[in-house]
Amino acid sequence: MFSELILNNINSSILVTDVELKILYANPAAESFFKLSARRLKELSFDQLFRYSSFDLERVQQAIPTNQGFTDTEVSLVTIDENHAMAEMSFTPVKSKKDTHLLIEVHPIDQIKRVSQESFVQSQMLASRDLIRGLAHEIKNPLGGIRGAAQLLDKMLDDNDLKECTQIIMDQSDRLRNLVDRLLGPNRLPKRSQTNIHKILEQIRQLIELESDSDVVKFYRDYDPSIPEFVVDEEQIHQALLNIVRNAYQALQSQGQGKITFQTRIASKETIHGQRHKLAAIIKIIDNGPGIPEHIRDTLFYPMITTKSDGTGLGLSIAQTLINQHRGRIHCESWPGHTEFTVYLPIEL
Q: What pLDDT, on a 0 to 100 scale, did the predictor assign at position 128?
């Protein structure tokens, strides 16, 4: 049929279902997206294609009975082969002489959203960093005066009870100064040298295991031995990756059992922040925890953003700053049962 020929040549994934959402047709783009043949897709219903999805299934089920189509612009999907994608999805009831079918279009927007989000986050990070630096310096000046006055007063007092008060003022002033210093981020330029990325990951794994008093979290390693040693500031990369791993570990502790996977790969001709690099190391920190709450995913790397009652929300912000100093970037994907931080670092031999 002429109409089927057209559908077969559309780049977006096209599915046609009956009123019970059983798949009747899938074009080649859908076979590629779901990594299933058309014959296998026709054995499934639409809702069986996903391990997780953010679209409203009840609304999809009511599209044919109510004859109301709709479009969802930013849908998070995890297919049955554990492939995560962001997509724009359209659901359109189509009437024929005998039956009504549901035409479903899935248009991946991962690349567009990633580039847009990367640019937005980068500009927001620079703006917030300038604001924080201005505020931090305004805070540090009077803070130094408060601490100095408390120190002088402490030397003048003989009453130990009053000295306790001045000591509290000095301790809290130091605490605030340390917080401001952390907000300002690294205060030195990277000291670069040839480094093995797997050595850093192993040090982090051993450190987290030593800090833990139980074996509720298991570590798994999936390393690419072809990654050569390359030039980075070992201390800064260690700190950045440690902040990510520590967050993953703390998230898993609350659920009793969990696993963290360290995965490394090498990529050629990788574009990072608009610049093409001949080679790049890709480091993934993957955990099977509860996932990052949806309301903070877009602001995850901003300072003071945290879900922990005792957290400062600076770990990921500092990690991003350190990775950016190496002309790299961090990307995060998360849904219930899976959180994946990916660090891209240019390989400078």
A: 65
- pTM for this structure? 0.69
Determine the Cα–Cα distance for residues 113 and 122; give it in Å rounded to an integer.
Answer: 14
Q: Length of the chain, please?
A: 349
CA atoms within 13 A on the CB side of 236: 23
Please give the average pLDDT of every successive group of 10 residues along the chain, which has 349 residues.
70 91 92 90 92 89 91 88 86 87 89 62 64 73 85 85 86 81 67 92 91 80 94 91 91 82 93 86 93 78 63 75 88 88 90
Helix/strand/coil (H/E/C) assignment for every residue in the chain: CHHHHHHHCCCCEEEEECCCCEEEEECHHHHHHHCCCHHHHCCCEHHHHEEEECCCHHHHHCHHHHCCCEEEEEEEEEECCCCEEEEEEEEEEEECCCCEEEEEEEEECHHHHHHHHHHHHHHHHHHHHHHHHHHHHHHHHHHHHHHHHHHHHHHHCCCHHHHHHHHHHHHHHHHHHHHHHHHHCCCCCCCCEEECHHHHHHHHHHHHHHHCCCCCEEEEEECCCCCCCEEECHHHHHHHHHHHHHHHHHHHHCCCCEEEEEEEEEEEEEEECCEEEEEEEEEEEEECCCCCCHHHHHHCCCCCCCCCCCCCCCHHHHHHHHHHHCCCEEEEEEECCEEEEEEEEECCC
